[in-house]
Amino acid sequence: MKFPSLSNDEVKAKLEHLGNKVPFEKNLNIRASNSYFSRKSKLYKQSGIAVTRRLGAEHSDWNLEDIDTRDVRVTDLILSEFEAWGLNRNGDQSNILVRPRPTAEQAEQIRQLKELGLI
Asked: Which of 18, 68, 83, 106 could bridge across to 102 with cysteines, CB 3.0–4.6 Å?
C-alpha cells in the first residue's frame, strides 16, 4: 500500500498507533503475520475475542484514516472506563475514594489500643 503524501517514517509511526492494534490469539497472529488486511480480516473473524471478530467483519480494507478513526474510538472507550472508575477527564478527583493512612504516631496509638483489647 502506497501513501504518496507521507514518508515511510510517518507511515511506520502510524502503524504503531493504538488504533492499529487489536488483541489477537497468538496462533492466529502468527498465521496472520504481516499479511495484507484482506488475509488478516479472515483470521480476525475466527478470533475468540469479540472486538477482533468485529474488526474483521466490519472492514474489508484498512488504511491510515481507519487507524485515525479507531484511535479516537479506542481512546474514548479508555476514557469512559476511567470515568466509570471515578477518574474524570478534567482532573477532578473528588469522586475517587481514598482511604487515609494513619501517621506513624496514630499507628502507634492504634497498636497500643489493640494491645489493650480496646479495638
From this structure: 106
Q: What cell does 50 get?
A: 469479540
For residue 72, what is its C-alpha cell?
Answer: 479516537
* Predicted TM-score of the model (pTM): 0.64
Give CA angle at 17 (16, 22), nearest 5°. Answer: 90
> What's the chain's Rg over C-alpha atoms?
24
CA distance readout (Å), 67 to 30, 59, 72: 21, 12, 9
* Digitized pLDDT (tens) for each residue of the chain, 119 residues in all: 555 688 999 999 999 999 999 999 999 999 998 899 999 999 999 999 999 999 999 999 999 999 999 999 999 999 888 888 877 656 555 555 667 788 889 889 988 988 888 88
Side chain identity, residue 49: I
How is residue 75 written as a grid cell? 481512546
